[in-house]
């Protein structure tokens, strides 16, 4: 028995090893400490910020902000002027976590409590500044350029699409920072974790606020390499292997994007996010190569099939706060990259087209059709594999893949329908935000269950609602969100995506009618998955060895409760997010304004058709669960030839290694021998000259 006290927060009573080599501990709590008081204070501040954003977005007269909130002081006026006129705000937002990370790591050497407070406060300030960009974004777009930096210069542009992504990342990072304080007690190297967590945050913010492809690529790579340390954090064999898969795929994706950038710049002379369809329409096969390179490069990070192999490896071994961030926002950055590229480079300008059938939409339509089916296949494989898992985090990882399939499908519809693609665009963006909320909460719930039981196998649990009633309640909220229950956030975005795929076969090819059917079946499979998770973990009889475990305490509940409130709030008033943020974002791209006004503005989410459709999906999901349990369909062992990693990636890896070794063995010695001869001749000549003329 070993006792370790963590500066006023918790005492470790038990030390042993779990399957991945982490310390197994039982936590005991003390009275509220400074960290908890600080969290409560800044959490209240975050709620006030969000309330202020809601109030501000309800009135576009940003110059009257002080009157709206009841302040007329000089300080409030200066704050308004700052929000309206400070053009370097995006750069400041990015630099706070990038600079704050090393400072937090240094503080951690002195006091872990103080470091964790610094992490939460730094993230809160970043969130504050992200939300402070709204007045400028609402009036147009923010643009800031650093000329000549790295040769090409760095550009930052924050439009409404960028703002949605940055605000989602800020909210999620803030709540996970609060949650991580208690959870990271079971992990070593906490200073290193928080350092790379902050750098990853800065990389994500830089990626989504980039004004051109060069800047996006730079921060995308920062995000990739820094997040590797989150995946491989505990340094077990499984973590290192998962980290290797992640970084290999990440490097391949980065090289793919880089090659696409080179081709784009060579043929168009620009990397700015502007419509380029008229310039690339005559490039022949090159334009399709560029689209493939961009979609493949960003698709790796998005977990898109068949580029998903890193994701189910990373989540089970990464610390739960890292899993919540990886699934909650990092994979969305990959989807954001696909969306930003597809609606910028491969679409025409609004002034160049006459309608949906214009020939300039050719590349966009072909690209969109491919992306739709990739999204559908990703949905199906993800939900099927999720149903086969016993490891809770691995199940959630496969559901991240499946839910990314929904988003990718929406992006595909937006690209395929072009001028009439606003429904797919809106559904994809809305589901990015919603998935960030309910999937992060699901990972937090599973993390808390693991923290108390040291068990990830759902089949070995049961009856946890008696020990953790609040956690069970939060799990229900998150499950209702991801399955699309009316009144919770997932219902709105899934309804829009369902309408989008219907439009794909109404305005486009009739084969997408089958895609809509698959969409419905996958939704039922999602319902089945979370019936399975909740019933095995929280219902039934509690195993004897868990009779004396602790329940919920501390700031973890505060963080999870904040996410649950947002899931419910968005679900209750779905039109607010749609009308104030998503539709303004759609209007900045090449979409038909009349289509937006007719089908998206003041959309009736709670219509009879969509509500009754969800009844059938829930009944179908319950039926799949009953049949699956009766006939043991949740333990299917697939043939090895269906394993993409075994049949494709490992042979590819061995081929590259063997080729490299063969090339080295055949040519390296010859090259070395030639170099020796050349150097000998040069040195002899130099010595001769020196002796002769010196």
UniProtKB/TrEMBL annotation:
Biological process (GO), any one: ATP synthesis coupled electron transport
Location(s), subcellular: Cell membrane; Membrane
All copies of domain NADH:quinone oxidoreductase/Mrp antiporter transmembrane, residue ranges: 210-504
One cellular component term from this protein's GO annotations in UniProt: plasma membrane
Alphabetical list of Pfam families matching this protein: Proton_antipo_M, Proton_antipo_N
EC number: 1.6.99.5
Membrane recorded as keyword: yes
Domain NADH-Ubiquinone oxidoreductase (complex I) chain 5 N-terminal: 154-194
Enzyme class, UniProt record, top EC level: oxidoreductase
Principal location class: membrane
Topology relative to the membrane: Multi-pass membrane protein
Transmembrane segments: 32-56, 88-107, 119-138, 158-181, 193-210, 216-234, 246-268, 288-311, 323-347, 367-387, 396-417, 429-450, 470-488, 517-538, 615-633, 676-693
Keyword entries, A-Z: Cell membrane, Membrane, Oxidoreductase, Transmembrane, Transmembrane helix
Entry annotated with the keyword Methyltransferase: no
Gene Ontology terms, MF aspect: NADH dehydrogenase (ubiquinone) activity; oxidoreductase activity
Similarity comment: family membership: Belongs to the CPA3 antiporters (TC 2.A.63) subunit A family.
Protein name: NADH dehydrogenase (Quinone)
